[in-house]
Amino acid sequence: MSEVVLNADKVDLVRERRTLLDRVTLTVLRGEHWALIGPNGAGKSTLLGILGAYTHPTRGSVEILGHRLGRVDVQRLRRLIGQVNPRHPLESARTVREVVLTGVTGTIELVPRWTPSEDDLRRAGELIGLMGLARRADARWPNLSQGERGRTLIARALMPDPPLLLLDEPATGLDVAARERLLAAIDQLRAGRPDLTSVLVTHHLEELPASTSHALLLREGRVLASGPADEVLATGPVSACFDHPITITRNQGRWAATAGRA
What we know:
Layout: E1 4-15, E2 18-29, E3 33-37, H1 44-51, E4 59-64, E5 67-68, H2 74-78, E6 81-84, H3 96-105, H4 118-130, H5 146-158, E7 164-168, H6 176-192, E8 197-202, E9 214-219, E10 222-228, H7 229-232, H8 235-242, E11 246-251, E12 254-259
Parallel strand pairs: 3-8, 3-9, 6-7, 7-8
Antiparallel strand pairs: 1-2, 1-4, 4-5, 9-10, 11-12
């Protein structure tokens, strides 16, 4: 298996004469856990959409799991990618277990007349337990907290055992306790799956799991810094990215940002 999971080379994305991404280059290796950081409107979710094979670049090349965009069936490619979006458009009152099982079919709702196998049910139970939701397996979607929904969606994304996991602001709307439970679950998942590769989008450094290995800073669609997390998530680069003096500290593996210079 190739060590390169994602490779974007000089990627531009232009929409309605507006440049959303400008010569973005990124290489992600197997087992790395990247954070895409930047202010609102920097292009983070836009880049994640390209890495998830939902958007094609205007210029430049993108390879995902050894397949080049423009030369691959994107429907098949997307089945190899676990995608977590906290704005999951589920409208029915499905249970946690049922939502997780939709990860097998890659659909929002359960497929009519589809029956999960014993292996599907077993795996769903294991992932629900991993996400700390064993006691909530029969709870219905409308009755879940935002944090429980987020962990349910991670379990759903992992059902096909994908080599690549993309998380778009998974801690959005969570209180401190729910955020910490979510980040602990992500750290545990990564520790148990050394071959898993992941990319997480956020604009809050406090929402980064301690297992984050690399980071990319985006500002107005351009890469300001990219590389090992300890080098990129530092006071100078982050201050430049947000155009504001910000002091970055790290304690017990977690990052914190404070306005002003130390």
